[in-house]
Amino acid sequence: MSDANRARPALRDLLTDRLGVLSLRSVQIIVVIVLAAAAVFALVQLKLVVIPLLIALILAAALSPVITFLRKRGVSAILATWITLIAGLLVFGGLITLIVFAVRDQWGELVSSATDGIDQLLDFVENGPFPVDQTQIDSLRDTVVDFLTSSQFGSGALAGVSVAGELITGIVLAVVILFFFLKDGDKIWAFFLRPFRGHVLARGQRIGQTAVKTLGGYVRGTATVAAVDAVAIGAGVAIIGVPLALPLAVIVFLSAFIPLIGATVAGILAALVALVANGPVAALIVVIIVIGVNQLEGNFLQPVVMAQSLKLHPLVILLALTAGTILGGIVGAVLSVPIAAVGWAIVKTWNVPEEPVVPEDPAIEQTAV
Q1: pTM of the model
Q2: 193 in any annotated domain
Q3: Around 68, how many Cα atoms within 13 Å sit in the side-chain half-sphere?
Q4: Which residues have C-beta within 8 Å of that of residue 232, sequence separation ≥ 6?
Q5: Rounded to whole angstroms, what are the CA distances from 163 to 97, 148, 209, 326?
Q6: Pairwise CA distance, residues 180 & 366, whole Å
Q7: 218-268 per-position pLDDT tens digit
Q8: How many CB atoms lie within 10 A of CB 286?
Q9: How is the chain split among helix, strand and coil, in percent rounded to 5?
């Protein structure tokens, strides 16, 4: 055998040395990324089904305490489901109707006031103590307008539901799925866990309980925080004398379901309306009110109301919002944070800490012997 053949390394050696292990791990990571990208692409293509499914899952988790309460009182599963579903639809539909009737007559004035406020800010930037070139202002305005009117943003704003028929189909599908989740949610999850045994089955049960608890707590907590923010900011702007207080309060309530960004957008809109209607002093007071309410929310309401439902770093929330907005528009932005919260809660409960082994008493052992 020649020296060249003796010096040639075997394939096993090439795969098990440091470079080989690193190469294999890199290939595995690439395969996982490709599969994840393919799964996300498939979900985006089926978002007319996926989005109603996620909405129904979140609402079912939020309404699960009602179902549990009724079943413990001896109400049958089907009757408890119908009671919960009809009551939920009546409450939700009633709130939407009240919002529409309260805002529709003032919506045009609100948009006009916001537009005038933006024009005043641009005029101040252009002619203020630190003037900015008009070309830069026009370029910024054109960029924002192009983004808001682009096909991507327009389609994303309704999460791909571009026609009324698809929107109605999505709503009906969400209601039907919600009915079955409320009636047989535990049975559906148990069906998926049937192939598993032992610690894998226990892990699946923990994941189901964690998901329901996290989603339900997030929705109920967010709704409570949104209501408090809307009442506080709405009352503040009304006391100052800013017009359109009711539409602004409604916008604050709805925007609170988008963490970080929603409160900022609502505060800016309220300040713009105050700037046009009452001047810069009132606008400054509105900004102070919004900042105060946000501080109250972040330091008191969120820790108390949300509890363990949302233990995410603000950077994670921002990344989740960005990804959700890109994939699903406004609906994706609303759904992304609770999904991320559930994912993190599942990671934390994936493995239960092992219970410490308590040594047996030697005296007991000797007695037993």
Answers
A1: 0.67
A2: yes
A3: 10
A4: 289, 293, 296
A5: 21, 19, 37, 20
A6: 58
A7: 888 888 888 888 888 888 888 887 777 777 788 888 888 877 777 777 877
A8: 26
A9: 85, 0, 15
The DSSP string of 20-69 is HHHHHHHHHHHHHHHHHHHHHHHHHHTHHHHHHHHHHHHHHHHHHHHHHH
- Indicate whether 53 belongs to any domain: yes
The answer as to whether 152 is a domain residue is no
CB 267 within 8 Å of CB 285:
no
Q: Domain limits at 293? A: 47-143+160-352
The two structure tokens encoding residue 224: 């409570």
Give domain status of residue 14, yes or no. Answer: no
C-beta separation of 214 from 338 below 8 A: yes
The two tokens of residue 106 are: 């003032």
* Structural domain count of the chain: 1
Residue 98's identity, in one-letter code, is L
- Confidence band for 148, pLDDT divided at 50, 70 and 90: very low
